[in-house]
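step=encode ok
step=design start
structure_in=
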């Protein structure tokens, strides 16, 4: 079951049929929907009881980022490829060893990524920092987590990163990661009662002009830590009244010779969810 946030309201997709609330004006807010611990059962009940009725497939141009009041957080060095890339970019600053230790440690690296106003949706323009000379996208599975720390859905996340800034000094991580339009989410939330299988694929393609500049892929089998463990650590001594999104890290990193340019199109596809397309602008 997929849940879309659109300019005209909420839409549910199930078995290639689309449903919308019978009364949009009196429908629930996005925040009310996405904080429900029983979201999957709730949506099924709304369709079954005809509170949500047959509607049309949402237009691509009407899709919005599937976020309300939630914060976006991220986990780092959760794939071996990410460990390698982070060690390489920071070795001249003396920080390479940090990431090797994080990869092997019990405690994961968790950091704040974005407030809602810094997030763009499908078709939106993601940004590269003007003071960065080396910028890349990071394709990631994003978890939708309720205030009670329950994972109720999944979406696609793009954790835009300024590798030149982080490589100068690991303490510059917030500047490398947190800035306007540094995060993209969408195109929908896959609402699933069970965890995604380890075989779930995450594919990245970067298109420049009419040419594919980079392609790469990984699967959830490469995750060092489970999504449930990452959420458990995030909620230690921390609360999220509106719930949150948690990006689970990347296993696909372009080579060191590559940097994003304005106009590049970033396509991230995750099995079962769809494709998130954004342009650098």
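sequence_out=
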């Amino acid at each position: 079951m997929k849940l879309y946030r659109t300019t005209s309201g909420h839409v549910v997709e199930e078995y290639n049929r689309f449903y919308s609330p019978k009364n949009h004006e009196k429908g629930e807010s996005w925040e009310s929907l996405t904080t429900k611990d029983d979201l999957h059962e709730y949506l099924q009940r709304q369709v079954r009881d005809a509170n949500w009725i047959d509607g049309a497939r949402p237009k691509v141009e009407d899709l919005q980022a599937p976020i309300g009041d939630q914060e976006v957080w991220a986990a780092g060095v959760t794939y071996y490829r990410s460990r390698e890339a982070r060690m390489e970019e920071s070795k001249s600053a003396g920080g390479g060893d940090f990431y090797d230790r994080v990869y092997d440690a019990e405690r994961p690296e968790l950091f704040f990524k974005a407030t809602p106003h810094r997030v763009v949706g499908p078709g939106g323009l993601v940004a590269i920092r003007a003071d960065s000379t080396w910028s890349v996208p990071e394709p990631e599975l994003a978890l939708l987590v309720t205030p009670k720390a329950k994972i109720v859905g999944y979406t696609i996340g793009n954790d835009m990163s300024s590798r030149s800034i982080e490589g100068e000094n690991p303490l510059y991580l917030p500047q490398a990661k947190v800035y306007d339009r540094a995060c993209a989410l969408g195109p929908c939330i896959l609402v699933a009662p069970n965890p995604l299988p380890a075989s779930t694929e995450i594919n990245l393609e970067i298109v420049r002009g009419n040419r594919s500049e980079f392609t790469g892929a990984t699967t959830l089998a490469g995750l060092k830590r489970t999504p449930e463990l990452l959420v458990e650590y995030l909620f230690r001594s921390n609360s999220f009244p509106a719930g949150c999104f948690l990006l689970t890290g990347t296993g696909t990193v372009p080579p060191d010779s590559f940097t994003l340019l304005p106009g590049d199109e970033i396509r991230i596809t995750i099995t079962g969810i769809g494709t998130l397309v954004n342009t650098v602008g």
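step=design ok
step=annotate ok -> The mean pLDDT is 92.
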